[in-house]
Amino acid sequence: MKFSKEAIDKFWGRVNKNGPLLNKDLGRCWTFTDASGNECKSYAQFWCDGRVWRSNRISWAIENGNVPEGLCVMHKCDNSACVRPSHLEVGSWSQNAKDLTRMKIRGAFGKLNEDQVRRVRKWTPESGFLSSLAKEFGVTLASLIRIRSGDTYKWVED
Predict the structure, then answer these.
(1) Residue 88 to residues 14, 16, 34, 43, 80, Cα–Cα distance (Å)
(2) Cα Rg of the chain (Å, integer)
(3) Are 60 and 85 in contact (CB under 8 A)?
(4) Average pLDDT over residues 11-32
(5) How confident is the model at residue 141 (pLDDT cuts 50, 70, 90)?
(6) 33: pLDDT strictly greater than 60
(7) Which of 115, 25, 33, 114 is nearest to 76 (CA)?
(8) Which of 17, 46, 105, 110 has CB 3.0 to 4.6 Å from 78, enough for a Cys bridge?
(9) What pTM does this model have?
(10) Is the pLDDT score of 125 beyond 90?
(11) How far apart are CA 28 and CA 22, in angstroms?
(12) What is the DSSP string of 95-114?
């Protein structure tokens, strides 16, 4: 994939480089934004040079060249909206399926780190609205309710 300079500039212009910090070792995610400037919550698509591309594939290709035949672009950070090149790696479709299964088991597709999970568990009505915390973390209220009820993130110790 070879993209025009105009397409590359337009792509990076839609990236928020101050996204969530889901893994201290990796640093902040860079999240793709839609045409209105809202952060995408999952795999974003971008019209570029005559066709639609997944944003993570464009990011990988801009930084590393073509994705090798038969491989896919995976997220080290478990954030499907992330396009930060250092958070991306190529792998087989089989590896990607195993990774997706692992993320589902973790809950909320791995969006929350352990400190955030502990904060959700310690939440009380006096702390404010749980929905505000969900918005801050970029997850649904239902995800936080499942954490509080013990359905997800069972591996995180208080």
Answers:
(1) 18, 16, 20, 13, 10
(2) 17
(3) yes
(4) 88
(5) confident
(6) yes
(7) 25
(8) 110
(9) 0.62
(10) no
(11) 7
(12) HHHHHHHHHHHHSGGG-S-H
Is residue 124 pLDDT above 50, yes or no?
yes
Q: Is the pLDDT assigned to residue 37 strictly greater than 70? A: no
Beta strands in the chain (DSSP E): 15-16, 31-32, 45-48, 51-54, 71-75, 88-92
* DSSP single-letter state for residue 136: H
Q: Is residue 108 pLDDT above 50, yes or no?
A: no
Q: Which residue has the tokens 């290709």?
A: 61
Spatial distance between the Cα atoms of 14 and 45, rounded to a whole number of angstroms: 11
Please check the confidence at residue 105 and state whether its pLDDT lies above 60.
Answer: no
The amino acid at residue 143 is S
Domain extent listing, the chain: 5-106, 108-148
- The two structure tokens encoding residue 100: 């997706």
| Structure-block tokens of residue 7 | 């397409």
- Is the backbone of residue 129 left (phi > 0), alpha (psi -120 to 50) or beta? beta
